[in-house]
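Q: Focus on the chain.
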Amino acid sequence: MDDDRLDGGAVALGGFATVNVPNVPGLSFTGGLHYAPSILAFGDSDDLTSLELRGSYRVIRNAEVFAGYRYLNTDFDGRGDLNLDEGVMAGMKIFF
């Protein structure tokens, strides 16, 4: 992360899971949560929280469209809590 004169990073602990809906081939839901407490954060960052929720539909064998929500937050020394990314997202994922 880089915000003006502040730099930071973290080694986050967490995971993600994907659930395929058997009755609707191609439809899946994914969720991920990662957290880095202050002991795993370095630079000017005190902690890091990342949350992502996504629904996907595979339109062809090598591509899927998705929509979801993402939240990425850190706490910088001297600057306080800062949302690096938050909001709705949509896109296409291509596999090759």
